[in-house]
Structure formats: structure tokens, C-alpha cells
Amino acid sequence: MGVNSNRVEHYDSHETIRVQSETPMPSFQIHAVQFPPETTTLQKLTHRLSEIFFPDDPLHRFKNQTCFVKFLLALQYLFPIFQWASHYNLSLLRSDFISGLTIASLAIPQGISYAKLANLPPIVGLYSSFVPPLIYSVLGSSKHLGVGPVSIASLVMGSMLSERVSYTQDPTLYLGLAFTATFFAGLFQASLGILRLGFVIDFLSKATLVGFMAGAAIIVSLQQLKGLLGIVHFTSKMQIIPVLTSVFKHSHEWSWQTILLGFSFLAFLLITRHISLKKPKLFWVSAAAPLTSVILSTILIFLLRNKTHEIAVIGHLPKGLNPPSSNMLYFSGLHLALAIKTGIVTGILSLTEGIAVGRTFASLQNYQVDGNKEMMAIGLMNIAGSCSSCYVTTGSFSRSAVNYNAGAQTAVSNIIMAAAVLVTLLFLMPLFYYTPNVILAAIIITAVIGLIDYQSAYKLWKVDKLDFLACLCSFFGVLFISVPLGLGIAVAISVLKILLHVSRPNTMVLGNIPGTQIFHNISQYKEALRVPSFLILAVESPIYFANSTYLQERILRWVREEEEHINANNGTPLKCIVLDMTAATAIDTSGLDTLCELRKMLEKRSLQLVLANPVGNVLEKLHMSKVLDSFGLKGVYLTVGEAVADISSPWKAQP
Amino acid sequence: MGVNSNRVEHYDSHETIRVQSETPMPSFQIHAVQFPPETTTLQKLTHRLSEIFFPDDPLHRFKNQTCFVKFLLALQYLFPIFQWASHYNLSLLRSDFISGLTIASLAIPQGISYAKLANLPPIVGLYSSFVPPLIYSVLGSSKHLGVGPVSIASLVMGSMLSERVSYTQDPTLYLGLAFTATFFAGLFQASLGILRLGFVIDFLSKATLVGFMAGAAIIVSLQQLKGLLGIVHFTSKMQIIPVLTSVFKHSHEWSWQTILLGFSFLAFLLITRHISLKKPKLFWVSAAAPLTSVILSTILIFLLRNKTHEIAVIGHLPKGLNPPSSNMLYFSGLHLALAIKTGIVTGILSLTEGIAVGRTFASLQNYQVDGNKEMMAIGLMNIAGSCSSCYVTTGSFSRSAVNYNAGAQTAVSNIIMAAAVLVTLLFLMPLFYYTPNVILAAIIITAVIGLIDYQSAYKLWKVDKLDFLACLCSFFGVLFISVPLGLGIAVAISVLKILLHVSRPNTMVLGNIPGTQIFHNISQYKEALRVPSFLILAVESPIYFANSTYLQERILRWVREEEEHINANNGTPLKCIVLDMTAATAIDTSGLDTLCELRKMLEKRSLQLVLANPVGNVLEKLHMSKVLDSFGLKGVYLTVGEAVADISSPWKAQP
């Protein structure tokens, strides 16, 4: 377009066209709308599939390489340890050693506590802090991920399994189901990674997770009142009402000794947590606090062992390494469906946490974590775990944060942690005999309280009300209904939000910003002016079956309102409707029918409908469905500006 | 922007910037990006809700009217009969009388046949052609809709109910459940209308319906082989395999007399249908054919009544008007859930047909049908029907087409039809005693064969492969699984298609069309050239939790590929990434985080990220979440052109 100030129209605020005198007839160079290069269906399909499954183009490193280099790269891809093992040195080892020991001090009490959260024997929590970290250090691509059991997955597994199977009456079945669920969680995670379906976890939006985690944290904290108050008979249900009923119904079982011990250590843990939050450099204060509490309380109970029978202790724990458990997996029978369901729910939750944590710390040090690769690593680690008496593990946020702050450099810190757990398993187990259960409850509460992220919730409320609604729904869903259903409702609301945006898209009237070829929303830009005789509408969504009826009605309403307005103000009569298709990024057969229909209906009212700037695939479909033919050569323009200039030029010639 | 040819940059094909000598430093007037006018949360909510529920602004007619006029308008809205009854005249009556009698001749055999399709007594089909048309003529807003039972809803009701309840062993229960399902269908339809949730039916896309109806038509036609071949023992299942098995397993029951009679009349009906399709003026040929067949075959059987015992006939039908059936409705008990489910599925299917047919004929005569109003009318008509021995009815395509072609002018034609049915019910029932069942089978086959719309299916394949996939899925789902499940799968695929579009949106590189301020997809527009030092990307979707991770990865990949390309060709190094946000019509909290993260990651690589043309609500959210602050004053531009001009101007000053 030979843009020239002489040829640009100016619209003044009285909405009449003023054309500068020396050039009475603007002779714009109109650019033809072009089709995208022709591609076959197969090419389109390949392109689409590669965008869906390989958006990161994982093979780009393999291009133009020799076979040997390709083999090395593949090996490094499958086992990231080969990427860094060759240039590993003593100084890195020193950092990893310190951070490994630091997270071990956190991992041991956490392992025992979280296993109790899943209604599993405490020793399973330690087993789960030994085998999976070793496997992850070979397969994982994150340098800072601290691997082990996490509170959310433990809680969900405990709640889903114990709704059907009692862990007190049939502990072997319960344990077997937990391992089976772990196996299916791993299988599910690894398949997502291998099939490159990682985007499934994207559907757990941050808003959903904020609500879900806060709800779960409250439920877990309330459940810990069992240990904290010393109640013996407690509900196994997970909703807030039965839990609270249970607390007050058994108030005669409350034990003042337990309460005193529990709340003192809870206060200690919360204070250390607060200190570390205020001064991130003092991260070790909260990292060391759980182990300190365990040691102190164990010594205390040991000293007072003849006077504190009311305080429940862990008791005997077997020494020794993880026993094999592949023979305990159930692949048939009544409870298989339960195990699969539990596996999928815990698998997806632990995956979400693991990937999110990995990405967070990777972005802090500006390296990338490959989502699909991580899924494979976490999945294989869980499959291996399920055969060696471990339950669901993933990258834990608290552990990774401590790991990062303690200066971890590579996944070797996970190996050091596993070694420390190994020593504990082999030699130190009898020391936990007198550890009071109430300390574990206090540790759990301190851990989960960090999951209540009210600041994020407040931000959601401020920025996006619908996101906040999804957050609220998952929060109350978890509190009052059940963990998986709460999660399901929240995902449904998130999806509904997308569908709502598509089924009721924004349409807006565009106006010209005087002296330019820019057309903008007149309600957003005060200086944008309507162009007389034109109604310029922008559609802010793909035109699909879900919105085609709505769009047709809405556009006709815009036309009706514009005509009413013109009649009321004796304005220039409407002659042409320009549809700016820039944001209508796709169209389906219903959408094509709608455009056709709309054009016919407007034609019956002597109004012309033209399209501006249809994107490539929309243009192609308009062409293939012959809708383009009905619009004619002059029905589609490259920009709104060119449409307005070209259509209005003959009118000006005959004033 | 003081656009002036001297100031416009030209990029030649060697991708170097050439600035015309007389103006070495372009001094563009950059337009500030403006926020939309501030609105409160309540105002936003009200606006959003009114767009969701009242997109057609139904109250606009009531504005600035006196109370009396408002009352009259409300009455006319509720009972559209008041709109046209006052200027009804004899000439209109003449047209309506002819068309009413024409559709009655179609309605009587269709009513009997479709009732058999739903495994109901034939008389119920006639009852259903009497009460509902009368109610619709008072409440409905379409002038051409022919109301009565339709094949799809009859088939679905028959298949869903008879899977659980046998219509031969417990006919009273079956009949009661059919009326109950009709009641719930009506209730569901009316509620959709009253709650203005009409968009629910939009989710049955045309592609889905094409496949569903073709599958259903094939199943129905095959089922009619029972009547057409004279088989006595036949499966009640609806899948293709048991039906075909049934046909050939009972081949000893085939009756040559029935087959001869059936296929001759089927041929007659198909030929008349073909004639009417070829010459629309001869519509009456196919409209009169069913009644002609019924009369001819009845006379034939009556004459040969001593020699044709093998041919099953309808037998005795009770005379008299619709008996009340409200006492037969089940509102409790074992089968309530089944009745509700059947009601909802048949309700939504019949609603889809009724609304689509109403809209089709309204657009032919350029009047509008109010979707929500129609839902109320159809819903109330079914509720009333369920209390007067009618089963699900709606606007039938075949009947409406005949009605329209026979010159119907108003809903009075429905009243005429009902009167004709009334006469039949009161006096003519004994005449149907000798009507052979095989004729009904032939009528049904002729009716449903028109539902196989292979031309539309071919068009779907040509224009949109994913739509075609949805079509295929519903087709095979209905054939091999079951009617409601097939429908469910197809809806799920349609929704998945929307989600896929959102979770894997298109991103594309824009280039400048030389001599203009227009930036376009470089793969679509060959003349569009990349701007050196810039990478201009357009995102073709809202930025949501479902795609934020993908978009981040994809944009980083674009940057990586661009840098590799530049390095390979010794080009100008990349300095700035411009994100064209025109088509990113919404953003949520995850999307905001992604933009923030992306900006930081690019900054670490010394690349500037700026946004161009964010729409109103995106801009607001960027502001509220403080992401805008991190981009700074110079981080957001009104157009890509202004961004490029403004950012590159200091570079040119220091060559």
C-alpha cells in the first residue's frame, strides 16, 4: 500500500468523512489475500501431530550428527547421569555431600510421618527414601529435585484406599494395594512420558491446585488431632464433618501429656519454620528442626518411659534393607480397580508436584527440565519402588528447597541422602522405638501448613474471578466431598471456563484511530471513531459449532443496535459490515455455514458483509467449502483499513 | 501516527534495513496503549452474565414503552398466537387448510409407524399427533413447524427403555415409563428455555449429528427387516451385530408373502421420494405416498383376508380421544432413573431437531425464531403430552418440509392437522384393522433413509478432518456400542477438539509486507519479510493454564531456531521478540506467570520481550497482576509496526 499522508482519510468526531481536497478519490493499492502454501492432508496431519506430541522438537540435537554421536546423545537423553558424570569433581561432591546430609535429616522424620499419613507402616516411608532417589539420580534431568514421599500423594493414597480396605483389620491386603497403586501410578506416569501426553497434567491449573492443596492441608491437619490429642478411636473418613465430630466425640480420650508434648514441639517447629521463611539464609533452622524434635522427644520419652504410658510411641521397627515386594502386587481380584484408580490419582498429583518443583528450580538456575523425560524418570522410579516395598514418591517441594538452599549441584545429593537412609535402615532403627507418634503429627502439620497459600488465593481473586471460583470449588470439594471428587470438580470447572470462553466469545466494535490505518475497540480507545456507513466487528474466538449460533445472533444484534442508533441520530445509513477475523483463529463446518447464512441474511437487508484478515487455515476452509466463492473476489481483504478504503471509494466518487 | 511515505521503512529481500536518506531517524508518533474504562467486579459480572444468558437482549422491545404496551408485548412473547391471530384472514386460512390436510395425510401413517419404532401401541402415535400440535400452535414462534413424533427420538426412546423393560412382558410398565420419560424430556426442555441455557444443544455439532443420524437410520432400517421379512422372534437389542444375527438366525420364519408385499410398497415409496427430491414442486407425490400405501395395502389385505394369514396386521385399535395418563407417570421406584435418563437424551435430541428445523424454515422466509422461546414451547407441549397419552414430540423435518411446500402460512396448519387426526381417532380407527405391519416398516425405512446425509459427510471430510472424525465416531458408536454412548463419545470428541485447539495453539512468525505497516504470517504471505534483529510471533489462542507451558516451550524453540538460523547465515543478531497478542483474547493466572517467566528467561539471554496490541481484558489482567510493571513503560505497544519502529530507532542512531 503506497501509504501517503495525502491519501489517508481523517474522520473527525462528527463522524463524517473528510477527504483532503487535492486527492478526491483515494487510490489505495489493495493487497490480495493469499492462501497458505498448499499441503496435502498427510503433511497437515504430520505437522499437527508433531505440534501436539513434539512441540519441543526433541530430535533437533540429533540432526547432522554421526551415528556414534547420535548413540551417545541417545544414551545421555535416556540416562542424564552421563551428561554430567564425566566432569564431576571433588568440589561438586563437597557441595552435594553437605546438601545430601541436610535433606537426609529432613527425609528420615518426613518419611516416617508421611507413611503414617498414608496409613502405612513407618518403615515403608524410609524404604521409599532409599530406592527411588537412587533411580532418579540416574534417570532424572533435574539437578535439585529432592526425591521421596510427599504429603499430598500420601494423604490421597491413604484416604482412597482406607475408604474400602481397613488398614487395621487387613494390613497385608492394605500394604499390597498400596504397592499395587504405586505400580500403576508409575506405569501411568511413565506412559504419559513415553506417549508424550505430558499436557494432561496441564489441565490441573494452578488455581485448582491452590484450592486443592489448601483443602487437603486442612483435612490433614485436622486428622493429626488424633495424634496430637492422643485420641485412640478415630474415624478413617476424610471429610471435615466426620473428622471434627470424631475429635469432639472422643474428648474423654484426650491425654494432657500427649497434648503438652505435641503442642510444645508443634510450636518449636512452627517457630523454626517462621524463622526460615523470614530469613531464607537460615533455611537450615527449619530443615534441622524435624530431626531435632524427633531426637529430643525420643530422649525425653526414653527418660520418662515409666511415667508416660499414655503417650503412644512408634515401637519396634525392623532393621534391614527394602525387602522385595513384587510378590505383593495384585493384578487381579476385587480390589484391582481401586488400586488402579488410586494409582492414577496419586500418580497425576505426584507428577504435577514433581514437574512443577523441577521446573521451578531449573528456572532459578536457567536450565531446562524436559517434562516428558521427567515423567518417564518419575514413572520408572515408582515402578521400581513398587517392587521394593516403596510407595508413591516424587520430587518434594520442601526437600528440593532445602536441597537447593544447601547448595546441591547435581543429583549426587540424592545418592548421599539415600546412603544416609541406608545407614539408618541398617543400624539406627531401634533408636526410633521411643519416638512418640505425636511428634510425627506435629511434623506433618508443619509440613502441610505451608501448602495453604492464601496469598496466591488472594491474587487469584484480584486478577481472575473465574480462576478463584475453580480454586474455591476444589477447596470445598476436598473439604466436604472427597479428595478425588473435589479434584474432579475443579478440573471440570477449569475446562468449563475454556468452553465458556469459546461458546460465548467477545465481539466488539472497532473504530479508526484518526490519521492512521489502525482500527481498535472503540470502548477501549476513546480516540477511535466509528467509520460512517460501516460497522466493523471483531470476533475474539475461533468460530465453532459451540458458538456459531450465538455469534450469528450477536452480530445481528450489533447490526440492529447500530441501525437503531443511526435512525435515532439521523446518521449515514449503514451499508457494509466488516468482520475482522484476525482473532478467529479457526473455523469448523458449523462456523462456515454460519458465515454463509449471515452473508445471505445481511444481503436481504441490502447490507454487504466482508471479511478482513482471515488467518491461513480459515482462508483455506472458506475456499474448500466454496463459502469464499459466495463472498466473491471483493469480499475478503487483507486489513480492515484496506476494506474500508476500497469499499468506500466508489461512494465518494458519486456524492 | 503521522504516517508519511518518507518515514516508512523499506525492508528489501536481503533483510537489511534501508532508511531513506532525507530522514535518517524515523520519529514515529507512538500511540499509548489504553486501558478499557474501569468497571467494578459487579458490572463485569453483570455484563458477562447478560452475554451468557441474554445475548439476544430479549427485553429491548420493552424499552420506552407504556405499561399496557409492555403487558401486551409480554403476552405476545408468551403466546405468539396473539401476534398473528388479530390479522388472520380467510386467504391465510385457505393456505393453512390445504397444508394442514396434506401434513395430516403424512402424520397418520407416520404416527402409527413411529409409535411402533418406540415399541409403543400404534394408537399412541396418533394421540401424539393431536394434543402437542394444538399446544404448539398457541405457544410456538415458528410458522412452518409440523409437530409430531419423530423417528430419532422414537428410536432412542424405544432402544433405551427396552434394554431394561420388556414391552411384550410388561406393556403397562413400559407405557408408563414412556410417558414418564416424555414428562422429563419436556421438563428438561422447558427448563433449558426458562433458564436460558439453550446453548447446551449447540454442543451437538452438525458433524456429530450427521454421523449419529446416519448410524441410527441404518440401525432402524435393519430393525425393520423384522417387519419386512415377517420374522416373529427378533432381538430387542440396538447394535448392528445382534440385529443382523437375528435376521439370519430366524431365516426359516421369513414369509414370501410379506416380503413381496413389503418390497413392492418400499419400492413405490422410494420412487415417490426420488421424484419429489428431483422436482421439489412435486413434493405432494412423496407426501401422499404413505397414506396411499396404507390405504392400498389395507384394501388388498382385506380382499385377500382368507389367504394371507402369514401377513401380520395392526388389528384392533380403540376409538376415542386421548385418555388422561397423568396417573401412569412414575415419580418413584426402581425405574425412575431410567425414565429420567431416557427423557434427557430424547429431550435433547428432539430439541436439537425441533430448533434446527424451525431455524431452517424461518431463515427461508427471513423471520427469526427465538431459540429459548421455542424450547419452552416444545417443553410445555411435551409435559402436557405426557399427561394425555402422548410420547415425545417435536418439530419434524419431513412434516415441516411438506408443510412449507404445501404453502402453510401460520401455525393454524397444525390445528387443521390435529382436527384431521381427531376425526381419524373418533371415527376411522376400525379401518386400520387390516393394515399390514410390513407397510409401517416400509414407511419407516423410507423416512429414515433420508437421514443418511452422505453428501454432508463427504463435505466434512473435504473441509475439516477432525469434524469428520467426530462424525465417524458417532456413526460407529451408534452402530456398535449404543445410542446414548455413541452420542456421548461424539460430544466428547467435539469438546476435545476445542480443548486441543486451546492446549496446542498455533504460533507463527510474522513478517512485514514491504512498504506498509502490515505484518503477516510469513509462511502465508510470500512477500512478507522478516525484520532484522526482530522475531515477531503471533499467538493464536487465549493464554490459559492448558497451554501456558506449551507456549513457553514453543516460543523458546522459535527463538532457538531463529538464533541457529542467524548464526548459520551470519545474520544480524537477534535483539527483540515482539509478541503480537491480537488473537490472545484472554489470559488467566497461569498465562500471566508464563509471560513473566518468559520475559525473565529471555532477559537472561539479553533479549527484550515486548507485547503488541493486547486486548482490553488481557491488558487489565496484566496490570492487576503487576506483570505490566515488569515489562515497563516501553514493553507494550499498540501495533507491531509501532513496536518495531520505536525499538529499532535508537539502534539506527548509533550505527
UniProtKB/TrEMBL annotation, chains A, B:
InterPro entries: S04_transporter_CS, SLC26A/SulP_dom, SLC26A/SulP_fam, STAS_dom, STAS_dom_sf. The chain crosses the membrane at residues 173-197, 203-222, 254-271, 283-304, 328-351, 411-432, 438-456, 468-496. It is found in: Membrane. One of its GO terms (cellular component) is membrane. GO terms for molecular function: secondary active sulfate transmembrane transporter activity. PANTHER family: SULFATE TRANSPORTER (PTHR11814). Belongs to the SLC26A/SulP transporter (TC 2.A.53) family. This is STAS domain-containing protein. It comes from Clitoria ternatea. The lineage of its organism: Eukaryota, Viridiplantae, Streptophyta, Embryophyta, Tracheophyta.
